[in-house]
Structures are given as C-alpha cells and as structure tokens.
Amino acid sequence: MEGVNLLNIDAKKLENSRMELQINVPLDNVELEYKSVFNKIQSGATIDGFRKGKAPLGLVEKRYQELADKEVSENLLKRAFVDAVTEKQLTPIAQPQYEFDRISRGEPFSFKAVFEVPPSIELGKYKELHADENSCVISEEDVNNEIESIRERDSKVHKKEIDPVIENGDLAKIKVKRIDDVQQNEIDKVDFKEYSIVVGKSKDESALDKHLAGMNLGEEKEIEVRYPKGYYIKELSGQKVKYLVKIEDVSTIELPELNDEFAKKVQYESMDDFRKKTREYLEKFVSERAMGDAKAQILKNIVENSNFDIPESMILTEMAVIFRKTQERVGYVSDNLTEFCKAFGMDQEEFRNKLREEAVMSIKTTLALQEIAKKEDLKPSEEKFREVLQNIAMRNSKSIEEIDKLITENNSRERIEYELLLDSAMEFIYDNAKVKKLKPVTLDEFLKKED
User: In whole angstroms, what is the distance from residue 256 CA to residue 108 CA?
Assistant: First the structure.
C-alpha cells in the first residue's frame, strides 16, 4: 500500500533453530489497513434502510468493528511478517506462531512471530582424524563354510518319523525360554521362542545345539549354559544361564553333491569358479564392512565435535521416517505408536526416545556431510552417476538408456546426485583421516567385533 512507513523489527535467535521477531507496525499503516478493510465491508454490507453497498461509512464502521478488527489483524500479521523476514533475510521453513495483546484503531499494532528456520551447523575438525580399521584374512575354511551354507539352502529335509533322536547334522526345531531370571511359579508365564538349528554345526562352545544331541522328539529339558567373559553378547558375558528347551521337530538334511553340476545350478561355471567367486565375495564383504566401520568412527567424531541447531519439525519428520522403516522391516504396520509398542511388548516412552535419538543422529550426520561437501566444493562425478544407472539396470534387467529415461521422467536425478554427494563427502573424510589398520583376525572374530 502507498504511504506505509517502515516497520520496527527486533530479531532474537531461540534454540532449536527458531527465530523470534518482535514487529511494531506504525499507526499510519494500521489506519490505512482499517480504511481498506472498511471500504471492502461497506461495498458488500446490507443494512436495513439502505441499498446494498450504500450504507454510510460511519454506520458500517460502528456495526462491523469486531469483524474489521479480525480482518485487519490477519492482514497486518501476514503482510508485516513477510516484509520483516525479507528485510532480515530470513527463511521460514514452517508457518509462524503469532502472539499479540489486541488491535485497536488509532494505535500502532505490535505482535510477536516465532518460527523455524533451516538448521545450522558449526563444523568441527574433519581432517586428519584418527580411526582404527579392522582387518580379516579369509581362510579356506571360511570359503568352505560359505559354500556349505549355500549347499544347505539347496538341501532336502526329511522328517525323522522312526526313532526321532537328535544326532549331529540333524535339523531341530526347538522352543526355548530363559528360566534362571524368573521365580519358579512364574516360569509358565514366560513365552517360548522358536528356533531352527542344525545340531553340532556351531563352533561356539556355549551354543545351545551342543546340548541337544541325544534328545527325543517332544522331550523337554533344562539346559545350563556358561558364557565366557568377553562374550560378544554383552548381556550374557560371564553369565551362567538356564534355559528350558523343548524339541518340536527333528529332520535329517540331504545335501546335494558338491560338483560342477551343483555349481552351475547356483549360477557358477564350475566348482573352481564357485570357490574363486566365493572367496572374492567374502574378501569384498570384510573389506567394505571394515572400511564402513572406520568411516562411521570418523563421522561420529566429527558430529561430536560440531555444534548443531536443528528445528523440532525436522526431528519429528525424521522420526516418522524411521518409524515407517521399522514397521516395514518387522512386517507390522500401524500409524499408532502405542499400538505398535504394545504388539511388540516395548515401553512406548523408551521406544519414542530411541526414535528421537536415531533421528537426531541421522540429521546431524547428513548436515555434517553436506557442510563438508560445501566447504570442499565436492561434486558428484558423471562416472559415479553412470555406475548407479548400470547397477539399477542390471538389477532390473534393463538397458542403461531405459533407466536413464525413467530417471529423467521421474525427476530422480537430483535425488541420486544428492546421495552421491554425501558419498563423496564420506570418501573425503576417510581419505583425509589417519586410519590405523589393526592386526588381522579370523572371520568369526571379525564378525563378533562391536561396531
């Protein structure tokens, strides 16, 4: 509107990436808005004794004062807020919350607006950070075990109908519940958990299958297991635990013969090719996991030494994303957090806190990588983008050109490039870290190491 005066604005930064603006609208601006609003009301007002739109302005002002106050305040709030954030060069990411005492014609109008702005980060040190990287030497036994597991997946299972006594090599379906941590009269209230296990296969001396050989179908037995100190499951380390075990089913396993025919059946050229590719797969797996764990160490260090200001709405949105992924993973969908927690016997507040913790860490790691990419002027390469296309094409049995066309049609290129940018930042911090390669361990030890 012509003739408006400048606003008086006081800006104050709040926690959780929020801003507070105290905005004072001059009297002249308020009066101009009242005149505009009353003119609009007058043009549509129907008052006894007058044709529509012809009632005197003074009468209209008296009769419609409350309506005008409401409309003027709404107009001034919106207009002044836009002007204020433009002047202060702020970027609201959600609707503001307004507060004001009253609005009155003949007086200036003052109000407060509180709103969220994009998250901010003060990045800490991100170069030359120390990290330990695990290593592992793949043995022939590891290769044999992996091939054996593939062989087992192609095996035939036959129920033991006559003399169903468990022997090493049998597949046993068992029910198990821990009973040393409950009162004797409460044992029946504890639910069994079902497992299928190949008896005698585990090398772990504290594994349950060590105690199953010789048991009969339907037999129920108490088994005591002593777990060594330093056991990879912390809750069991150094513990003496008593379980109640019941045998539900006993079967023999008929394994296919290991020969070139079997190798071809599982998509290899020969047994030699099978062994070679299996070793390559295991070596790639341990290498990528070791490097991934080292990268996670470095990134965690960066996050812990940086300062973040994150809006609450962003945290809640990320919590919802993680909750949805959790539901997809467990195969139980519910929009109701209370119902979901009840179904899995979880404490709702504890689960909510866990979701929040994961959400905050996810946001912080992403912000840190974004800031590093910005500072180092990193860009996703066309070569990396083509690799992504190739992988998608292979998984979907399509050509790269077909996938490229689909990505263009779905406007997905930007999202893929964004993920590649974060990957580039992750590679950068790893390449610029002081990574110490640890002494190689066996595959079993490697898999049991904590992240």
Answer: 88
Helix (H) or strand (E) holding 68: helix 65-87
- List residues bridging with 195 in a β-sheet: 174
Spatial separation of the C-alpha atoms in residues 27 and 37, rounded to whole Å: 15
Match 């994009």 to its residue by tokens. 118
Tell me which DSSP letter residue 281 carries: H
Sequence letter at residue 216: N
∠ CA(165), CA(169), CA(174), 5° rounding?
60
C-alpha span between 290 and 149 (Å, rounded): 23
Query: Which stretches of 248-311 are DSSP H helices?
Result: 260-265, 271-304
> Taking the complete model, does pTM exceed 0.85, yes or no?
no
Q: What is the pLDDT of residue 35?
A: 93
Q: CA separation (Å) from 412 to 95, 156, 407?
A: 28, 44, 5
Cβ within 8 Å of residue 340, ≥6 positions away: 323, 327, 332, 334
| H-type alpha helices, 88-116 | none
Task: Give 306-355 pLDDT, tens digit per residue.
Answer: 999 999 999 999 999 999 999 988 888 888 889 888 888 889 999 999 99
Q: Name the band, by pLDDT with cuts 50, 70 and 90, for residue 5.
A: low
Q: Which of 150-154, 288-292, 340-344 has the lowest mean pLDDT?
A: 340-344
The two tokens of residue 24 are 């004072």
Query: Residue 383 and residue 388: Cα distance in Å, rounded?
Result: 9
User: What is the spatial distance between Cα 96 and Cα 83, in angstroms, rounded to a whole number?
Assistant: 14
Structural domains of the chain sorted by starting position, each given as residue range(s) with its CATH number in brackets:
8-118 (3.30.70.1050), 156-254 (3.10.50.40), 261-448 (1.10.3120.10)
How far CA 101 is from CA of 33, 110, 112, 152, in Å, comes to 18, 8, 10, 75
The Cα 315–Cα 325 span in angstroms is 15
Please tell me the distance from the alpha carbon of residue 259 to that of residue 266, in angstroms, as a whole number. 11
Q: Are 251 and 158 in contact (CB under 8 A)?
A: yes
pLDDT tens digits for range 268-280: 999 999 999 999 9
Q: What is the mean pLDDT of residues 412-428?
A: 93
pLDDT per position as a tens digit, 83-141: 999 999 999 998 999 999 999 999 999 999 999 999 999 999 999 999 999 999 999 99
- What pLDDT, on the 0 to 100 scale, is given for residue 103? 94
30: left (phi over 0), alpha (psi -120 to 50) or beta: alpha
143 burial (CB, 10 Å; 0-12 / 13-18 / 19+) is buried
Q: Which residues of 10-35 are buried (b: 16+ CB within 10 A; e: fewer)?
A: eeeeeeebbbbbebebeeebbbbbbe
Q: Which residue has the tokens 């529509």?
A: 52
